[in-house]
């Protein structure tokens, strides 16, 4: 699996639609200060479901939408689509290529799509569990992150190893099953209460 392309429109400094094509191997992005290099990384984080405006160096989520320049009006929406080669089927879907799209409008509406089909953030998160790619994954190493990992608590470091070992999805499923079990136990207590009132 590898990153094939990134299509950005209306996201931060990228008002026009622009497509970054990546090939197998190393790609470097160079440019003058403030030209938008880090915005490319922000676009990758954002399309993978980042929910924290701070992580994207903004104050609110609407800050990702192109806010205009002297010569250009602000835009009403931001859209990013990431395409990954999945010919080795590391992602648990049958497609050879997977495109995840995220859009947000100034009105606050937002949407996610997987290969053109509308989906939930949860579906995007589940698609990337245990691949290292999700927004919590280790495939995006931001400034200061290495230091954070080295000086982090053992539990925080453990999350990284869980992701690499491929057991995150099982832990999430276990937590969901335990929550259901707990809810059912509560229901049973209520049923027993009602029964004892009736008898
Ligand atoms: P440096 O080399 O200094 O780290 P950089 O090339 O990484 O810079 P970025 O931080 O990616 O640059 O981009 C900063 C630019 O993006 C600034 O010019 C800023 O005005 C612009 N920018 C950020 N958000 C928006 C937005 N919502 N609308 C328009 N422009 C934006």
From TrEMBL:
Full-sequence portion shown in this chain: 1 to 199 of 1186
Binding site for ATP: 32-39
Protein role: Required for chromosome condensation and partitioning.
Domain-level remarks: Contains large globular domains required for ATP hydrolysis at each terminus and a third globular domain forming a flexible hinge near the middle of the molecule. These domains are separated by coiled-coil structures.
Gene name per UniProt: smc
Signal peptide location: none
Domain of life: Bacteria
Coiled coil: 167-199
Subunit structure: Homodimer.
Protein name: Chromosome partition protein Smc
Subcellular location: Cytoplasm
UniProt family annotation: Belongs to the SMC family.
Source taxonomy: Bacteria, Bacillati, Bacillota, Clostridia, Lachnospirales
